[in-house]
Design goal:
Keywords: Carbohydrate metabolism, Cytoplasm, Glycosidase, Hydrolase
CATH architecture of the largest domain: 5 Propeller
Family: Belongs to the glycosyl hydrolase 32 family.
Strand order of the largest sheet: 19-1-2-3-4-34
CATH class of the largest domain: Mainly Beta
Main location: cytoplasm
Radius of gyration: 22 Å
Structural class: mainly beta
Helix content: under 10%
Number of domains: 2
Distance between the termini: 42 Å
Bound molecules: beta-D-fructofuranose
Enzyme class: hydrolase
Pathway: Glycan biosynthesis; sucrose metabolism
């Protein structure tokens, strides 16, 4: 059924790894390497995959290719942690070693049920050598694949569940990134899809045993919202269904949708009996330059945790780390909630354990205040009032508030990128995580987030403007990876 391509087996990777110590040493010397973010040892990282907690241990898999910093052949790498401070890195664990995934073990997810982990992913095949090659309709195979594990480390054989021919007739060959949810005792698989008219949507499949899946429905907006929805996730918070996904092909509108591709959180009303669906509200999930493909899971404490890719496909700038042989990272884990109906993202509380002493607290009252020159820090700003303000977060990089608009400005350090903005009635609070080459800015207790890679390495923190309040800087230490 499948044409043959060159696959990469574990033994091929092991041989390559043996021969490439010099590559690893070169990457390790880059001063932009991050202290508390997961990143590739060499090469490229993108979407988080298979997130789950099993018997106390958090499992984080991700799209990875160690061979070059520009992407290409994807596999799944694996990390674990119990506390989000100490990690173990297992390197790549799933290889493109089958006919049905020869051009990439693409994104997917994990679902814990009956003391077992069920994994689903898209096996990608590119039919470059076909006479009728066409990117949208015939050029690739998008195969839904499953495997299981009793412990998160040892995996069963991959089982092919669906091929491109099994999806509905009017759907193009772009179908990928399966994620599972359980509702009223039945299992649903959500897949991101593009139809033949280039309308983005999700496909829903239903199953009673997690292995046999029947087409159930499709969900999209009333008016088309982009040509493809990647990396969908559907979950429930306080009785409200939330659909997150990454729509592609949306034009900028005001301050919104300026990145090459978007990540949206939608309030979904869906009747699983009548299949009536309505998307009621769409929120751009992140305001920064580098955020995509987030995935959530419920942990054993019942928290809904999200991790995203701190990067973006088809970026219009060259990430300076490319020259040093690596690109991209995952975001810090965030806890998701609904507050007064608003979609909220806040850093998980475990990250407080990264604070390592040397805390500086400063009241500010309008005059420019230079605080310190830390580079790797968490900053908490509590405003008593704020008419306008300008905060320097790193040399040349500012966050300012003026006329109810909050602006992140990368200045001379943007590598071609300039500003990102959001309208905000009032600025009350900021929580900022600055790593060597990244910023994650949580605004008003997580109502908005800006996630961005930055390349100014010189520390400088100051605040000025018609505002009063308290700024606390917590220097942060590295997390530990074995
Ligand atoms: C999103 C994405 C997914 C795909 C994966 C391949 O960044 O394009 O849709 O499965 O990356 O690496």
């Amino acid at each position: 059924m499948f044409e043959k391509y060159k696959k990469v087996l574990k033994k091929d990777y092991d041989a390559w790894y043996q021969e490439n110590k010099a590559y690893r040493d070169k990457v390790a010397k880059d001063p932009r390497r991050l202290k508390f973010h997961l990143m590739p040892e060499t090469g490229w990282l993108n979407d988080p995959n298979g997130l789950c907690q099993f018997h106390g241990t958090y499992h984080i898999y991700y799209q990875y290719t160690p061979f070059e910093p520009t992407g290409e052949l994807k596999m799944w790498a694996h990390c674990t942690t119990k506390d989000f401070i100490h990690y173990r890195d297992y390197g790549p664990v799933l290889f493109p070693d089958q006919d049905f995934d020869a051009h990439g073990v693409y994104s997917g997810s994990a679902f814990v049920d009956n003391d077992k982990i069920y994994y689903y992913y898209t096996g990608n095949v590119k039919y470059f050598d076909r006479d009728d090659y066409d990117y949208i309709n015939s050029g690739r195979g998008s195969n839904t694949v499953m495997f299981t594990s009793e412990d998160g480390y040892h995996f069963s054989e991959k089982e092919l569940l669906m091929t491109t021919d099994d999806y509905p007739e009017d759907i193009s060959n772009h179908v990928r990134d399966p994620k599972i949810l359980k509702h009223d005792g039945k299992y649903y698989m959500v897949l991101g899809a593009r139809d033949k008219k280039s309308v983005g949507m999700i496909l829903l499949y239903q199953s009673e045993d997690l292995r046999h899946w029947k087409y159930f429905d499709r969900i999209t907006t009333e008016e088309p919202f982009g040509y493809m929805w990647e990396c969908p996730d559907v979950f429930e918070i306080d009785g409200q269904l939330i659909l997150t996904c990454c729509p592609q092909g949306i034009k900028p509108q005001g301050f919104d949708y300026h990145n090459p591709h978007q990540t949206a959180a939608m309030k979904l009303s869906y009747d699983f009996d009548t299949k009536e669906s309505r998307i009621e509200e769409i929120k751009l999930m992140d305001r920064g330059f580098d955020f995509y493909a987030p995935q959530t899971f419920e942990d054993e404490r019942g928290r809904r945790i999200l991790i995203g890719w701190m990067g973006i496909p088809d970026a219009e700038y060259t990430n300076p780390t490319t020259e040093d042989g690596w690109q991209h990272a995952l975001t810090i884990p965030r806890q998701i909630s609904l507050r007064d109906g608003k979609f909220i993202q806040e850093p998980i509380e475990e990250l407080r354990k990264l604070r390592c002493g040397g805390t500086k607290m400063a009241e500010f009252d309008g005059n420019e205040k230079k605080i310190c020159d830390d580079v790797v820090y968490e900053a908490v700003v509590e405003y008593n009032k704020c008419k306008n303000m300008k905060m320097t977060l790193r040399e040349g990089i500012t966050l300012s508030y003026e006329d109810e608009v909050l602006t992140l400005d990368l200045g001379a350090y943007g590598s071609g990128r300039t500003t990102r903005k959001v309208r905000l009635e009032s600025l009350e609070q900021l929580q900022i995580f600055a790593d060597t080459s990244s910023l994650e800015i949580f605004v008003n207790h997580g109502e908005e987030v800006f996630t961005t890679r930055i390349y100014s390495l010189k520390g400088e923190i100051s605040i000025e403007g018609q505002c009063e309040g308290m700024l606390t800087i917590y220097p942060l230490k590295s997390f530990l990876i074995e």
